[in-house]
Specification:
239 residues, alpha+beta, 4 helices, 9 strands, elongated
């Protein structure tokens, strides 16, 4: 019962503040067991928006925590967690009217980078091969908490920038399909390296006057188990 309370605490703590890494380090060995692996993960992601012809890929970062939960005595696991800091968006969009003639003139020949910040929750079925490779696939849900367009332009040798909040123009919820390929070090006990792709299936725009937009992102992630060795040793002693 205590373990489930700790899992809930870690899961909801990101919505309360930025102490996720600290609380994970403190509680990591308590969340791990012979059937559950808990850890931190983070890395880079390369994202764009489907549906926008001019859109180009741009780079972001991600940080979160994960759970790998064994399904009985089999090579199958349930992979889940929360990507607390998950960037989405695109670059190379043409500048549009800001409703201010002076600003429109300055950024007329500029470009726009669209930025979204999500809490993402993957829920996938994961299969572990004997060579420490694993493959998983399933769904990922997203909660949008920040969205803005970053305008930039070069005017007479000076670089200008302007940021516009666009959160009200987009749905807060997103959903799509995700799949990942992972490799684990140290005979399956160490860090894991994952390449994951997210294919958004939901149009995130609210207005029918806008082109439909769909999140796309390729994640390159390093996962670090917290307290995994202690948990396995404890489980072995109990047996």
């Amino acid at each position: 019962m205590k373990r489930y309370l700790l899992i809930l605490l870690v899961a909801f703590f990101p919505f309360l503040g930025n102490g996720q890494v600290l609380i994970s380090l403190v509680l990591g060995d308590k969340l791990n067991s012979g059937k559950v692996e808990f850890g931190l993960e983070g890395g880079a992601n390369f994202m764009t928006l489907g549906g926008l012809p001019q859109a180009k890929s741009t780079t972001g970062f991600n940080l979160g925590f994960y759970f790998d939960i064994k399904v009985k005595e089999s090579p199958w696991m349930v992979h889940t967690g929360v990507i607390v800091k998950s960037s989405m968006g695109t670059s190379n969009l043409p500048a549009y009217s800001l409703g201010d003639p002076d600003l429109d003139k300055l950024f007329a020949n500029g470009s726009v980078e669209r930025n979204f910040r999500y809490f993402n929750v993957p829920v996938t079925a994961k299969y572990n091969f004997k060579n420490r490779l694993s493959l998983d696939g399933g769904i990922m849900l997203g909660l949008l908490y920040k969205a803005f367009d970053h305008f930039s332009a070069d005017v007479n040798g000076s670089k200008l920038s302007y940021q516009l909040d666009i959160l009200d123009q987009y749905h807060r919820l997103d959903a799509g399909a995700t799949a990942g390929l992972s490799y684990k070090l140290m005979k399956g006990l160490g860090m894991n390296f994952t390449v994951r792709y997210y294919y958004g299936l939901a149009d995130i725009t609210k207005s029918s006057s806008q082109l439909s937009q769909y999140n796309r992102s390729l994640y390159i992630v390093v996962g670090i188990p917290i307290g995994r060795g202690k948990a396995l040793a404890k489980a072995k002693n109990q047996n």
